[in-house]
Amino acid sequence: MDYPLKRCRAALIAACLAVVTAGCASAPTTPTAPAAPAAPAAPSRDSEAQPAKDRTTAPPQATFAAPHGLPVTVKEIGPAEEAVDLQVVTLFNQASKQKFVESMTDLDSRLGGFVTKVRDSGQFQANALDTLLITPPPGAIAARRLLFVGLGDSSKASLDLMNKVGTVVAREAVRLRAPTVAFAPTLRDQSFDKLDTGQVGAEFITGAILGYDTEARLQQQDLDPCFALKHLYYEAGASYFSDVVEKVGPAVQKAVAQVSSRSDQPFGKSGPKAGTCHT
Known about the structure:
single chain, alpha/beta, 7-stranded mixed sheet, 7 strands, disordered N terminus
């Protein structure tokens, strides 16, 4: 056998295999489709996630027009949650032994037991129409200031008393220069159910409207510095909201008629002056 020939054939085969191998290695591969870009995140108002309560719908409310441009709104919300200049709640005296439930329990807890302690110590006796004003600790409740109005003995509570509470609240709001005011009757929240919730709302709103009208007349006659309430809220629980709205509407209309029927005679010698404030 001719070994040189064999070696030539072997070299030729090896060269061919090298060419084939190189061609396979250099052959282009079938391109794959690029991955779809990730969808951009939806923009948010803030850099942090919003609290769940910010994404919920607004609570039910109904607004009525009272004299002197004062909106009166019945709102389904608790007294710890309304962001106003002045929040007002009522309080029976300690001798009545009315148990706190629901919103009063919540309010007392947020204030570190203040309501129970100040009442039970006797330092706020909560006599009828007695008042106590505090500035809550930062973040405790939504309102800037909190006013307690005493109701005295629960056995003597009446719709007439709630009418007078309305007058006191209107006058205190003006005295404190609180443009926005919210009132929670908190009767049911003190385990008291002897007065109809709708009628309580009607009496309170009537007293507040008439009380504010007197304050406005004093201002118009230069007997008090000019100041206007911007909004009055009446807070009602979900179970009582509809009934309160149903009773407050006619009460506002009745109070408007009473204001219109009041005499325009001045309280003093000066009387209303041109250019003075008009609330």
